[in-house]
Specification:
By secondary structure, the protein is mostly helical. It has one domain. Helices cover 73% and strands 0% of the residues. The protein contains eight helices and no strands. It is elongated and about 65 Å long.
Length: 205
């Protein structure tokens, strides 16, 4: 895998870590374990992600996240707890691809990776908080299931073609922001519909 493809792969994984950190680490670990990603010499340290202990921990986290994300407001609490964890994980995933002999680029990648993960995390958390205002639970489950499918599919695509995955992540991010704005407008309209009409002051005769 060329250097530019590794950068695109790291960018994709960093962005997706903002949605599903544990699933991202799990897929990366399995890819390392089964040698699906041929790494240059300076990235051999990434083999640690293929450790059975790392894969097992990521699997447990992914299952917990899968379940928590299906319950209204529990998902928002989960997102709140991971406001720091997801960006940190995304930053470390991005940082791992840079040659240690290039400290300047390491810092740049660390900041960009963390910022990317924080961006997708913020969009996801905001969209889910808006969806949770809906009185029925179906929209929450549908939204979470769509995120599961989109994230897993994009992670698998990233292993084959990182640039296509990066484009898909950008589209998913735009869709997430769009859903948040649409639900916010919907909630505002519903609130105005059921709010008591303003009383007009009596006019003098």
């Amino acid at each position: 895998m060329a250097a530019t493809e590794l950068i695109a792969l790291a960018a994709s994984f960093s962005l997706l870590a903002g949605w599903r950190l544990y699933a991202t680490v799990l897929v990366a670990g399995l890819a390392m374990h089964f040698d699906l990603i041929p790494l240059p010499e300076h990235l051999q340290s990434l083999d640690v992600l293929g450790s059975p202990w790392i894969i097992g921990a990521a699997l447990l986290g992914a299952v917990a996240e899968f379940l928590a994300d299906k319950i209204a407001w529990v998902d928002s609490a989960w997102d709140g707890v991971h406001t720091i964890i997801r960006p940190l994980g995304g930053a470390l995933l991005a940082l791992a691809i840079i040659d240690p002999s290039q400290p300047v680029w390491q810092i740049v990648t660390l900041l960009l990776g963390g910022g990317s993960a924080f961006l997708t995390h913020g969009a996801k958390a905001s969209a889910r908080a808006a969806v949770n205002t809906s009185p029925e639970p179906v929209s929450n489950v549908v939204m979470s299931g769509a995120e599961d499918v989109a994230t897993t599919t994009t992670l698998l695509i990233a292993l084959a073609n990182p640039w296509i995955a990066l484009a898909l992540v950008a589209l998913l991010l735009a869709a997430t922001v769009g859903i948040f704005l649409a639900f916010r407008r919907f909630v505002k309209d519903i609130g105005e519909l059921f709010s008591p009409a303003e009383k007009k002051p009596p006019t003098g005769g």
